[in-house]
Specification:
This protein is mostly beta strands and about 290 residues long. The protein is built from 3 helices and 20 strands. The chain folds into 2 domains: about 150 residues, Jelly Rolls; about 110 residues, Beta Barrel (Cyclophilin), CATH 2.40.100.10. It is about 10% helix and about 30% strand. A 7-stranded mixed β-barrel has the order 12-19-16-17-14-13-20. A 6-stranded antiparallel beta sheet has the order 7-6-9-4-1-11, with no helix packed on it. A 5-stranded antiparallel beta sheet has the order 2-3-10-5-8, covered by helices on one side.
Length: about 290
């Protein structure tokens, strides 16, 4: 095992250990969880030459400071947070070497929500059901990172450091997500309200689901009819009785009793993880 580590000096917001998740256990009532923005997660590991599935830190809105114990190669992707190494500004998307005692600090990103701090080799975390991911709904996996934690580096290295840096990602563009209709779109008097209107992200959105409001509610044809629980998946758009949609995220329950009007196509679900409260989002049918 790698003898190097990161000492957490400050942790102002939510910081979770995440990896590729624990797929294939839904029949046992266990969700897949894993990184909310999978593309940013995979990019961090690719830049560092890590094996697929290496554990990283998912950092919400910055506020994290770590100190190197030994030489540590690091990279931050996802939401473009300001970075400083011992007070010197560095870009996101760059592979950086931290020498013993040097400190890396993540500020508040200009846009987006979740940044990913990867280290060469990944973090050494005892897996739970085959994964190091923290599932916030089921409370599976390692506990949230806190100040004074010592995060030991693992040795999940697959190849050399091949790229020094990539351009930072921006999440400031208008958001339009593709949606496959159904399976319960026929439960609504006018399902096209979903794609005609602009929706606003509510403040109590999280890894379980993105809650939306700010448009006319979606009305059911028969409000008195109850739906038996059905299997759910990431990107499913449930509609509770109040009529405002909830888009399920990485830590969604494996079953749900609200009708699903549509499902966000898989390639667009990563963008959900970077939506801030108050931001707007639109949907577009990809089949009809």
């Amino acid at each position: 095992m790698n003898a190097s580590a990161l000492l957490v000096r400050e942790c102002a917001g939510q910081v979770l250990v995440q990896d590729a998740g624990r797929a294939g256990l839904a029949a046992l009532g266990v969700g897949s969880s894993g990184a909310a923005d999978r593309a940013s997660y995979r990019l961090a590991n690719r830049l560092l030459g890590n094996a697929d599935g290496a554990a990283v830190l998912e950092v919400v809105l910055g506020g994290l400071e770590v100190e190197a114990r030994g030489v540590c190669w690091v990279c931050v992707t996802g939401a473009p947070t300001p970075l400083w190494v011992d007070g010197r500004a560095e870009p996101t998307g760059a592979v950086l070497a931290l020498r013993p005692g040097q400190r890396l600090r993540l500020g508040i990103p200009a846009n987006g929500v979740r940044s990913y701090l990867g280290v060469r080799g990944g973090f050494a975390v005892t897996p739970v059901l085959g994964s190091a991911a923290r599932d916030t709904l089921a409370e599976l996996g390692p506990p949230p990172v806190q100040a004074a934690d010592v995060l030991v580096l693992a040795d999940r290295v697959e190849g050399p450091l091949l790229v020094e840096a990539v351009p930072p990602t921006t999440f400031a563009d208008p958001v339009v997500l593709g949606v496959v209709p159904g399976p319960r779109d026929d439960w609504f008097t006018d399902p096209d309200v979903l794609v005609r209107e602009t929706w606003s992200v509510e403040s109590h959105s999280d890894r379980v689901g993105i809650r939306l409001s700010g448009a006319p509610p979606l009305e059911r044809r028969a409000p008195e009819v109850q739906l038996s629980s059905e299997a759910t998946l990431r990107g499913a758009i449930q509609v509770p009785p109040r009529g405002h949609p909830v888009v399920l995220g990485a830590d969604h329950p494996v079953t749900g009793g609200y009708p699903v009007i549509g499902v966000v196509v898989d390639r667009d679900t990563d963008r959900l993880a970077q939506l801030r409260p108050g931001e707007t989002v639109r949907f577009s049918w990809v089949q009809r």
